[in-house]
Design a protein that fits this description.
This protein has 287 residues and is α+β, with helices and mostly antiparallel strands. The chain has 12 helices and 10 strands. The chain has 3 domains: 4-158, Jelly Rolls; 164-217; 223-277, Arc Repressor Mutant, subunit A, CATH 1.10.10.60. It has helices spanning 92-96, 101-105, 116-131, 135-152, 158-161, 168-186, 194-200, 205-216, 220-237, 243-249, 255-266, 270-277, and strands at residues 4-12, 15-22, 30-34, 38-45, 48-52, 55-59, 63-67, 72-76, 84-90, 110-113. It has a 6-stranded antiparallel beta sheet with strand order 1-2-9-4-7-10.
Length: 287
């Protein structure tokens, strides 16, 4: 990796998401350097030249690149340094567990451009990680982003991979998987990461996330947050007043994360919810 300012955004379940500002200020070519793992590079600003396995490309803020082990990368910065990108390092084990694993594992590095909506979701994920979200939500959003990036590479995405007629037995199995997942969350499995939750119901993270959304009609993260908000409301009603305690109890990244999720789902802050739920009979007041 070229010298630069590095910031970790998330690390869990076989992936490492990070923010990078390149500090290389050299107009000539640096490299080649062999890649040791699977890496997705999403440009966010700036421009430079990139040579992957001998193929030269101009990179700007619309570009995406997948590197595989053994791929060789060289870079040049004729316009100067300062380009910013998001890096996503993933393990072979994580890729092998995905339904679209062949498209990731069987192909040498590919380059493409990212559509505007996918780019916005990518940037929103970076912003959410900076604000502070838990590893579970980060993992699910990363898996969805990976599926969308296949289309950017010119490869068929999830819809093509799974484009087979679902038999009644398949639909029933999907419903059972969703119900088992709901039961695990109802039992309080809030601290588990996405991979651990998937393991509990004998599934892969990507398959579980996709099936759950299809059956329930919302993402696993959204449903899990709904369950967590209800648990927080119950504890507030029971007199628990420490938001820090509740954040730790229900697996939020921190107190600020809990407050944002509660406000997103209820339109009210936790402190307002306390007033609405208080038992002294006094009129609630808004803050």
């Amino acid at each position: 990796m070229a010298p630069g300012v590095y910031r970790r955004l998330g690390r869990a379940d076989g992936f490492h998401l990070y923010d990078m500002r390149c500090l290389v200020d050299h107009p000539g070519w640096l490299g080649p350097k062999p890649e040791s793992g699977f890496r997705v590079v999403l440009a966010r600003s700036g421009a430079y030249l990139r040579r992957v396995n001998g193929r030269e490309t101009f990179v700007d803020a619309t570009s995406v690149l997948l590197m595989r082990p053994g791929d060789e990368l060289s870079v040049a910065h004729p316009l100067g340094c300062g380009d910013v990108f998001t890096g996503l390092d993933v393990t072979a084990e994580l890729l092998a567990a995905r339904a679209d694993c062949r498209l990731w594992l069987d192909r040498r590095g590919w380059e493409g451009t990212v559509g505007d909506r996918v780019d916005l979701r990518h940037r929103a994920l970076v912003a959410a990680c900076r604000r502070g979200i838990d590893g579970f939500e980060t993992a699910e959003r990363v898996h969805h982003l990976m599926a969308e990036l296949l289309a950017a590479s010119g490869q068929p995405g999830d819809d093509v991979v799974r484009a087979v007629r679902r038999r009644p037995a398949t639909l029933a199995a999907h419903r059972r998987l969703a119900d088992q997942t709901r039961a695990a969350l109802a039992a309080g499995l809030f601290h588990a990461g996405l991979r651990d939750l998937a393991s509990t119901v004998n599934s892969s993270p990507h398959h579980l996330s996709r099936v759950f959304h299809t059956v329930v009609g919302q993402s696993l993260t959204a449903y899990r947050n709904r369950m967590r908000v209800r648990a927080v409301l119950h504890d507030l009603d029971q007199g628990v007043s420490s938001l820090r305690t509740l954040a730790h109890r229900y697996g939020f990244a921190d107190q600020s994360h809990l407050t944002r999720v509660v406000r997103q789902h209820l339109g009210e802050s936790p402190s307002t919810c306390v007033k609405l739920l208080r038992r002294d009979g006094g009129p609630p007041t808004r803050t």
